[in-house]
Design brief:
By secondary structure, the protein is an all-alpha fold. It contains 8 helices and no strands. The chain starts with 6 loop residues before the first helix and ends in a 7-residue tail after the last helix.
Amino acid sequence: HKDHVTLPDIMMPIGKWDDLSWQDNKDLVARSFEKIGLRDEAESLLNHQHKGPGQPFWNEFESRILKNLTGLTQPRLSVHEMGHALHYTLANHNFNDNPQLAETVSIFAESLMMEELKKQANTPQKKMALLSDELNADMQYVGQVEKLIFERNAYAFAEQHPEQTVPVEALWQNAGKGMLGESIDPS
């Protein structure tokens, strides 16, 4: 029924995953980064033992947002934000705050977590929840790219036509269609 699918349909996670304790969540984050040799650095940030540039970033997200999340959103966002914190730490104040690069690092970190969780998906319900959450995350990334395309096109239009009003709605619709094709209604 692809002619009837809309973004809200696609971005609705399905299934249930047992809620992880905060300690289980932290262990999952550390195990995810073990695959690329960064478990010690991640644990140092998780346990507030590191004093580098990534620690304030992690502290802010941990206390304000991450501990309050449930389901798969908590580990996915925790690994994502830990990706940013490790990026800051490893760059050691030479961080280039390029949003595309920063998000690429954290999206890669999420893929490490998904591989780790696939080992724990021992029921059809958990597998469905995991796949649904992964699809939800992928659609959010498509949305981020869509926003970057829209922004680039809006600035280009404004430069090329300084006397005209930027056609915001048309540019937004076109950015969505360029990413998702005609089968999804970007509105």
